[in-house]
Amino acid sequence: MSDTPLDSFSQLQLAEPLSRAVADMGYTAMTPIQAQAIPVVLQGRDVMGAAQTGTGKTAAFSLPLLQRMLKHENASTSPARHPVRALVLLPTRELADQVAQAVKSYAKHTNLRSAVVFGGMDMKPQTLELKKGVEILVATPGRLLDHIEAKNAVLNQVEYVVLDEADRMLDIGFLPDLQRILSYLPKQRTTLLFSATFSPEIKRLASSYLQDPVTIEVARSNATASTVEQHFYSVNADDKRRALHQVLKSRGMKQAFVFVNSKLGCARLARSLEKEGLKTTALHGDKSQDERLKALESFKKGEVDLLVCTDVAARGLDIKDVPAVFNFDVPFNAEDYVHRIGRTGRAGASGLAVSFVAGSDARLVADIEKLIKTKIELEAMEFEEDIPKIREQGRINDGRRAWGGDDPRDVLDTPRPAPRPQRHSAPRDPFFDQPYQAPAATEAPTWEASAKHATVRGISANIKPKRKVAALFKAVAPAVTA
DNA sequence: AAAAAAC
């Protein structure tokens, strides 16, 4: 190989059917991960590849694999005319679907066949395709094991394995299935791991699955794209929905991902945002696969503006031109923050990532700060509808609690009165079923009340417009962790 | 604290 780095696909001298496919897609220049990974994979080496979200990892492994499969005919004397030679594993069904489509388009001028199998869909059509024979199989782990055990998929000829979102595939929830799948594969093979995030522990674990790997790290692993503008607003849990409305309006944003930590919370939020007049759909793992694919499709087509979702949508989904990502809840894992906000600002586009931070999220925000090695400034959210009121009363403090935390009684462990039993059948969840209504001016909390709240936890009642996470954490942590 | 992945 020459010492000058390659930067265009034409320099790779890919087989004609592949360079034609690349040209069809309008690609000319390679991204850094592609420029570095493709030549290494072409040499047949194992790879652990880390690159920021949205920088073309799929092409970085698909193209050289296809190239090698074209150049090196399967020499085995297997009775199967089309044994599975390459296996690509992914942690979610939607992602498997997406990667399968990409592989298909790169392979469209070749004779290589590909198929995708994932759960939630009828086994039969997948079985038929597998029986016809495919060289490239894209799959999620559970359904693949079903097919292996039903002898629909025979993997003893596999030459290449790709674990996309590798750190997720190696985490505790997936590892048992993954190990079982790998036990069906030949020991002698090429293994490729790709992700935007690799923790040191995962790197160590990963290396036990690789033979003499080449580590490729484009930018720092765990880095967020520099084109994404990130904000963290300290918002009372009850104010998150109107904060969402306000940011969308003030930034003139139309489409956005809205991430929520639980499936139930996801369904509820989607429902109330819909009632509040936003075109919304929900994507989470309690929906049928049919509904999941439909939700994603309608978001892609722009039929809905908001995709309210759980972390099922955090990784890999490549939807063009989504301008914003909201973390309605701060994610439990800092890695997921990197992946979530990676849904915007893809392929060099600009993007906005807004996270709503409640008081009990201080630790999570500190974790994110550490992972992305970036100082996070917590910002106060000023609501437009409150500004006249604030002026009129001649105060800057609008009476909201100094940190957007849970009820202070929770923190202080004060017993609360039991909720009144409902006499009549009430809506299942009054809070989420009601559209947000601005409180009447007379109901505005007094300054005294706010000062009392604030002194209770030792934070100045005068909210500074920007506060550091560290300060917040220091103030809140003892009470929360106690 | 949850989600994801098989029926």
From TrEMBL:
Residues in DEAD-box RNA helicase Q domain copies: 7-35
Annotated ranges, domain Helicase C-terminal: 227-389
Superkingdom: Bacteria
Stored PROSITE patterns: DEAD_ATP_HELICASE (PS00039), HELICASE_ATP_BIND_1 (PS51192), HELICASE_CTER (PS51194), Q_MOTIF (PS51195)
Molecular functions (GO terms): helicase activity
Family to which this protein belongs: Belongs to the DEAD box helicase family.
Chain positions of motif Q motif: 7-35
Stretches the record annotates as Disordered: 397-436
CDD domains from the UniProt entry: DEADc (cd00268), SF2_C_DEAD (cd18787)
InterPro entries: DEAD/DEAH_box_helicase_dom, DEAD/DEAH_RhlB, DEAD_box_RNA_helicase, Helicase_ATP-bd, Helicase_C-like, P-loop_NTPase, RNA-helicase_DEAD-box_CS, RNA_helicase_DEAD_Q_motif
Classification of source organism: Bacteria, Pseudomonadati, Pseudomonadota, Betaproteobacteria, Burkholderiales
Protein's UniProt name: Superfamily II DNA/RNA helicase
Organism: Rhodoferax ferrireducens
Bias type Basic and acidic residues, positions: 397-413
Domain spans labelled Helicase ATP-binding: 38-216
Keyword line: ATP-binding, Helicase, Hydrolase, Nucleotide-binding
